[in-house]
What does this fold into?
Amino acid sequence: MKKGSIYRFIAFALMFTLCFSQLGLLKTQAAGNPPANEKTLSIGKAAKGTFTEPEQTHWYKINPSKQDVAKFSHYRIKLQSDDEVNITVYSSLENAKNNVAFDRYMGYSYKDEPAQLDFPIAWTGPYYVKVEYYGDGDLIVEDDTEEGGQTPSEPQPELKTEVPYTISYEGASLPPSQMMEEECPAELSTSQKENGKGILKDLRTIRDAVLSKTAGGKDLSSLYYKAAPFISSKMIIDKSMREQVYKDLVQLKGLFTDVAKNGASSTYMITSADQKAINDLYSIAYKSVPTALKKDLEKVAAQTKLKDVTDLNVSSVLVRAKLVSANSVSTKAETRYIVKLKDGANAKSFKTKAQSKSAGIESINPLKQSAASFDNMFVIQLDDSNAKSFSTSSAQGKMTAKQIQALPETEFIEPVQEYHALSMDSQYPYQWSLNNTGKNDGTQHADIQYESLEKLLNGQKLKDTVIAVADTGVDSSLADLKGVVDTKTGYNYVDRSSNATDDNGHGTHVAGIIAASANNNYSMAGINSHAKILPVKILDASGSGDTEQIAYGIKYAVDHGAKVINLSLGGSYSRVLEYSLKYAYDHNVTVVAASGNDGMEELSYPASSAYAISVGASNRLDIVSDYSNYGKGLDITAPGSDIPSLVPDGNVTYLSGTSMATPHVAAVAGLLLSQNPGLKPKDVEKRLTDTAKDIKFDEKDAPVYDDEESPLEPPAPGYDYVSGWGRLNAYSAVSAQQLQAQVNTFVSTQKVVTGKAQSGSTVKVMNGSKTLGTVKADAKNTFSVNIPAQKADTVLQVVVTNGKASTSIRAVVQKAPAKPAVKAVTNKDEYVTGTSKANFTVNVKNSAKKVIASAKADAKGAFKVKIPKQKENTVLYITATNSQKQESEEVKVTVRDVIAPNAPKVNPVSDADTTIKGTAEANASVVAKVNNKEIGKAKANAKGQYSITIKKQKAGTAISVTAADAANNTSKATTVKVSDKTPPAAPSVNAVTTKSTAVTGKAEANATVTVTVNKKSIGSAAANSKGQYSVKIKKQKEKTVLSVTAKDKANNTSKATAKTVTK
It folds into this structure.
């Protein structure tokens, strides 16, 4: 990072330390000068401009073309000036009018330091560019500022009359960017570098997380932006100034750190040493800026007393300075309570006691509104006007409530609460995974049935379950996570501390999905309101963690009370992690892990572990997301695409991935354990998967299994290698647990479905939309439903309903017995192989279903049945029979053709030919290639004859011809070389006289040139590599006609060139 960027942040430090203590200094300002008279810039063409006075603004516009959008990822915008000139790029006219821009798209130039901004072509445009000039600080006499911020009365010299600049832009294609830490200048010592890193990081946090929340804070950021180029340019050339600034910044490091960590709630007390550093920095800032900006600082001096900040609390100062809002300091304390008196209690006596026992009561009035009233109920209004802080007011309210509850007349007291239609959180309408209305291209009801779940659990008193989020940490300061996250027990295995705060955002997003407080008007609604989040930080700020951190984190969670562990992470298999997962499993802790985001037919680890519930991702269309890893072992899917949840900056942000799907499942696992803490991990998994919604396609959505080395293992009925056992249905899972619903195993020969359910529950067995039978569970909590016989592997749904609870449990009609798994059979094979149940007899039948061979499977179920070789496409049927002579369903196997055709025969091909002819296997596809590039193809007829049309090929070209049969078996290649049938051009002949003893000229390189007279050769010679030749002859008489021809190596002879001998 260039020094200018460093000093720009230092400029912010100067302005922050100057202004954070101001009492109402920075008023809300207008948005700034809106775009006016903007000029359109053209790509690759520089535009020149000139400022004629300070505080001028010039506007430019960039119209991204379709070509630019297709060709480039960014516009590289460059501003060059010998003076301090600022530049800001806005993504739209509205943002330009409102002065809304990202910090990285704000810059400045000064002598030998042009501003260069890489602006992404990510908006439709046009883009607006603002160029500003505030005055040349180098022309200002740097008089000392008087103590307290007062300026001397001497006049200042005039500023420059003209400030020229050049602005241009060009297209650029850049890789994705990464956040970079601010680096410290090389001049600092090692210890100072470390101080600098911490200070700059804290200042960035203060700017982005604290000051950006209010108009006053934004105004401060704007002032720093204007002052930055002047302070930066001074610091670069003035070493003593740098040293003084860093000395003062180090003094204020504690202040910065506390504000960065605690934001508006900082309780840091300003010391006298801090006060001195603030005064020093004020003086430096004042001396560095031009007259136009000095005026702003003079307002500071006029409206504040810098000496008066000593011993002040930073949070109260920030609020009074309007740099943060009062609401950001703490949650508003409750000031109204409702009291219910016991029957027969004396209201007058109660009021007297309440007001005498409890200080701070403003009024006590009956709970009455218009004609409605409630006997023995009163509203108490507290007076918090004398409270020193919001936390003090809250504490006073709780104390008052406690004192009133202790009065003999009081039955109960509770704070006044607000109620709204479900769900009352600002971002809830966007939480499609909880309530999918079908908007935004979604599928209605393709969600986890959260609203039905909420109604089911409403009023139920369930125990809280600890769910460990082993991730990048969790930001517990957010309103939706306050009181939900167990920060005291949390641990950080990245830096071995108890601070498990999130420095990435991933862990907070996960925790929000699980347990963000619902119906509190804040950001969103979490799924499980009976969860306590145990944050275990095992991933660093980049989202990475090593084996030890993760293993330790899992064990720590188990040992500190977690009943569910969410692992939204993945990598390669590790024995260490497997041990820790088994440790969790053996201690009855349910581990839920993400399947991975590679879109591959392989689960990421630890999702692939038998000790974890593996979770894939689905989208709002109720289909599996393209990126979601799948394959054998996938247990369940859950919503994972475009899932909104909290991140540490307070935003509700969309993220996609199996990382987002996993906490949906973890949250519901926690609810099941709140219902029954004695459930084992396998019980939790079965409850979740048995009640999942089938979302697999009826057609080609599953992988094709045609590997000759592996048995053909179709997925189990109801299971899908892409979506597992289906998409999570939270309401059905929790209902099933509440109803204690259980379906016993049954086979195709049975005509009754039995099981358990809460007495009085209605039990209905369904095959698709058809009802097969219905009963009520008896007083013993059992049921028996008579149904027609069903085919093996039929997937039925057993629907159990009682009151608000309703569940649908998948039940599969079992096979009796299982059919064998058979490997592919080819026309080369002499055995049919595969696996079945141990010791079963395996029969191979022909297309007429007549047994042609049999063999017995061994103790492990492997079988090998000898058969005669079969022709391709022959159909075989394989069955397995148990000792009771019960035969399995048939496995149909079509014999595959793996024998390649013979190499085709090819007729000779010359450089004059436009077809290749020959014979091959009947109906084969014949392809001709040169240098592995196809030049033509054709299909052989029933007799094997073929004719391939080609372009003429050069002599000597090798043509490779192959034949492929209907099974795509390809023959060996037949190679034919193109013969040369093209004669050379007639040679050129130089003049020949009666004195000549040689005939010379040019012909095809290396050709044999022959001279004849009256068809009789009189001489011949070979042309050289350049085509030059010289044929020795005897002297010829005048007017003798010579005939000269050239013959190439293929014996093709050119036309003759006649030459008459001259005198």
